[in-house]
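Quick board copy: two proteins, each given as sequence then tokens.
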Amino acid sequence: MTGSVPLGILDRSVPSGTHICTFFSGPAGRDEVVMPFLAEGIRAGQKCICILDSLGPADVLERLGHQVDLGRSVETGQLELATPADAYLRTGKFSADDMLAYWENAAATALSGGEFSLTRATGEMPSVLDQPEGRAEFFRSEARLNDFIPSYPQVIVCLYDLQRFGAEVLMDALRTHPMVVVDGMVHENPYYIEPSEFLGGTGLGDGG
């Protein structure tokens, strides 16, 4: 699928294959992004994936149900909800390879089934990784996502809570996402670093 994809937030659309980070403050700010983004996908008949560390699947369902008729979206597999522990921390240890394998398998499975023309996904960095070693590995995976996301019809929105993470996390988020949502606007990200450069060591952890 090519062309623009309505985000469901900010009255904006982005190209298929877009990797976005959005900054917000607290649970209310998170829900202002996550719920409309998923609701738009449910209405459009798209595959929707949500992996949150700060809100459990049952709570996501309850809040999302206030915005859109969920019908049988969970039973049919259209809506997939999980925690990081259920998805890419199942071994108890984070690895960039495991995270990339999870996302690529999800996108490929959704496309191969023929039911969904696009996958929209949203997730957040697990708080357990907010220390140097875990953070470095996580942002390696974020950088590598940029090489695979355009290969499938999908949009991925990554969530960063300004109340949870410090400046080092936020700077690495900017370095690994081509687009960013800040102050209610979607911007091309001038701080983005191409994956080869970032993974080569010039980007990761600079200034932090």
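And the next:
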Amino acid sequence: MTDLFDDAARGLQGRIAPLPQRMRPRSLDDLAGQRHVLAEGSALRRAITDDRPPSMILFGPPGVGKTTLARIVAEHTGAVFEELSAVSARVDDVRAVIRAARDRLGGNGLRTILFIDEIHRFDKRQQDTVLHAVEEGTVTLIGATTENPYFQVNAALLSRCTVIELEPLSLDDLADVLSRGAAELGAELPDTVSAEIARRAGGDARSALQTLELVWETARAEGVPVEQRHVDDAARKRPLRYDRDGDQHYDHASAFIKSMRGGDADAAVYYLAVMLESGEDPRFIARRMIILASEDVGNADPRALLIAVAAAQAVEHVGLPEAQLSLSQAVVYLARAPKSNAAATAIWSARRDVRDEGPRLPPATLRSGGYGGASARGHGEGYVSPHDDPGGAPLAYLPEELRGRRYYRPSGAGEEREEDRGDHDG
């Protein structure tokens, strides 16, 4: 009787399951996007079609096909396919799968593929349990994660797996997904509406199909064709994927800094907006701007540091949301400012010499003569302040062993002009 009810439930699920579930691809040809790793003749595609998939970690944002790819492998493999969710699986569950896999392998040579969804949620002990089974060849592991595995999965397990990054779907890929979804629903979907759903989906096929289904059901309930207003109603603000201690944080901060360094004010303001909308600490943003003002603008525009510090003060005194104005103003200024890293390379080079060679003593002329016995040691002897004798002969300021060495080399950009330094070094 239970089997009859199970069969009936499966039959109903095929009709009432959400559209993304009903539209889940069953073959590599049906899988949208990911041509960079699944193109005809690619190593991964050949491995899957030849039923020799490697242990792998599938990494990418939601709705790009991680679980779908794992299930396509399940459809095509001659191995037993075991599936666990790291959210609910316990160490005992993992061990039970591995014991069964070992028995199959030893009994009749049958392989086992173990799929672990959200593998980043496994703690170290659970990951270690899987590690030994992968290392011994007892199972072939396929892990799926939305988090960067280099932050979340231990190095030993990573070294035994191929990390495959799946990318957000393009607008064209999403348009194709939506076209197939509309055919499944029997819906008329104008191109303009399809394009708007795709734009708002942010590369997520699941989100696009969910929006399409809600848009279609709303329009059908009203007895009208699908319109733009239905998309506006159905596609509310998407939750932003941004981890403040993971690679989204580092990737956007890196792009923000490099955009300012490269002089692209539009890109820099965009990445500022992403970080602010995602809840990034504005003090972190301001600190990065202060660093860039000295490291990448420097004396080509000395005002840049003042403006960056002023923006940081605005964050402290005004707070968000108003401080976004000061941050944006400063970002635009920093991006458009002439660039020089001469001050930064000067201190980096000087510190490297100190580390490599040890600190050298200043010339006796520059040493302190303000204590008893100093003059007898020649300290301060021959020193003449340039205030007292502006036209006097230049002194040697660097330690004797470093005479002629240059650390600060003006870039010539903006206000940082190459000057005639004279022979002050030696």
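Board note added afterward: Residues 91-108 form the longest helix (18 residues).
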